[in-house]
Write a structure and sequence with these properties.
Blueprint lengths: L2 H11 L2 E4 L5 E5 L4 E5 L5 E6 L6 E6 L5 E5 L4 E5 L6 E3 L3
Length: about 90
């Protein structure tokens, strides 16, 4: 896939976009239940997260670089570590 075309499609089809401290861009794909990661130059780095997602529609980072994802279909929030995409329940 052409990386510029892939970048455009991901941003247009994604419902939520968040930028990490290291400047990579993360895009929620609600229909595909994935979070895609892109480099600052627009290169598609693939799926960052594929588990624990059920209609991801919101993304936010904390100061430690953890990614929080809200899931509209399950009314949940998941926390993803910056070093791996292991999903954790968000703290209450």
């Amino acid at each position: 896939m052409n990386t510029k075309r892939g970048w455009f499609l991901a941003v247009v089809l994604g419902l939520a976009v968040a930028q990490a401290q290291e400047r990579n861009l993360f895009v929620a794909n609600q229909g595909g239940n994935t979070i895609r990661e892109f480099s600052p130059s627009g290169v598609d780095l693939g799926d960052f997260a594929t588990t624990g997602l059920n209609g991801p529609t919101g993304l936010a980072f904390d100061r430690s670089g953890n990614l929080y994802v809200s899931n509209i279909a399950s009314n949940t929030i998941r926390k993803f570590s910056p070093t791996d995409a292991a999903t954790l329940p968000a703290p209450d």
